[in-house]
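Hi R.,

Here's the input for the magnesium ion complex you asked about:
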Amino acid sequence: MNTPTNIATIETLQSGPLEEGGWLANKRVFIRVDFNVPLDKSSGAITDDSRIQAALPTIEFAIKAGAKVIVASHLGRPKGKRDDKLSLEVCGARLAELTGLEVHVPEDCIGDAPKKVIHDLRVASPGSQIRGGPQICLLENLRFHPEEKQDDEAFARSLGVLCDVYVNDAFGAMHRAHTSVHALPMLKADRGAGFLVQKELQALSKLVEAPGKPYLAVLGGVKVTDKIEVIEALFGRCDTICIGGAMANTFLAAQGHDMQKSLVEEDKLALARTLIDKARDAGVDLLLPTDVVVGEGLEATSAQTVGVAAVPTGTMALDIGPATIERFAKALSGAKTVFWNGPMGLFESEPFARGTVEVALAMGKASGFTVVGGGDSAAAVRQAGSEVAAAFDHISTGGGASLQFVEGKRLPGIEALRHRTLDDDRR
Ligand code: 3PG
Ligand code: MG
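And here is the predicted structure with magnesium ion in place:
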């Protein structure tokens, strides 16, 4: 695996000091995962369990190694206090179904409750059948404590007393310098990356280190603000950038088009103009929509395709139009490397889903190395069908994390695995 050489992996941890072998047996192994899954607003049920599925290889490896497995995650943004709607119970139930193992979720992630559960955990004897016997402890939502987001050493020590070994498999949270991602691993000499993190690093590294050219990026989503840094970083790397989604409206308005009721960031028009100029100076082809699908509002059930210069009064652009799809698809077919983040329109609404789905289909057919990152775009790829999803080289579980990686930024979670321990530094 293409894991940075100074980072241990769960496999190297398992081999331990040479004479030991099976180092994880009976160790308390803390596995930070990203179970921040989308939940149905009314029922609270998980609507897409990909992130749970993606963490299974690491969890099952540790179980088979005979470890006491402690799984930990955040879910949503509970503002530092308990919020029953964001309890990890629902993920615990799903994890139990997927592994066939008993999963215990103590009421808090630190203190006596998890200590007792972990003390009593049954482990597998290495090599034996894992179904039925061993148990998993899934800690309650780390963000029920405000200190989780503060990279807090005392909170790290409260989590640290629960475990001997630290494994990070939470790729989607690697860009957060939060306690369980950053301060906690730095306390543990035995720390490393899980299989998902290794897989993500291996695929995403190809976008950063000598990507095949032409390199094309497709960016969508609502706000230009969220994507400024990635757009600028990609000017130095990409040959073509296709822009869709509501953020394209701001660029189109900056070019003088009257976008009517469309979402436009009025305070970002000057910035959009600057980005258009910078693209030209950098020799990057910035492809904006030439036609759009409009509706009367976000709840619209009927749609109309119009040129970007002729958006009718009282309507808003909610998807890219067929001519734009064709233009993007043509660019995609010739690309050697493709990175996609952000939907092309309001794809959760049927009349405005076509742009996103067609872009997914075109990417599925493209012969280049194709990567999609971000919850919405990954969901759109799955919506386009399992064959389309299978045709992608990599579907990242990270949104912000994959963007920052592709920008060439260092991710705090990876740096923490590299770093010497806090206690080492004090010696
Ligand atoms: C994500 O879904 O992007 C990650 O789980 C990180 O969550 P956050 O954006 O709330 O920090
Ligand atoms: Mg996010």
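One thing worth noting: Residues 34, 36, 77, 172-173, 176, 399-400 surround 3-phosphoglyceric acid (ligand 1) (CB under 6 Å).

Cheers,
M.
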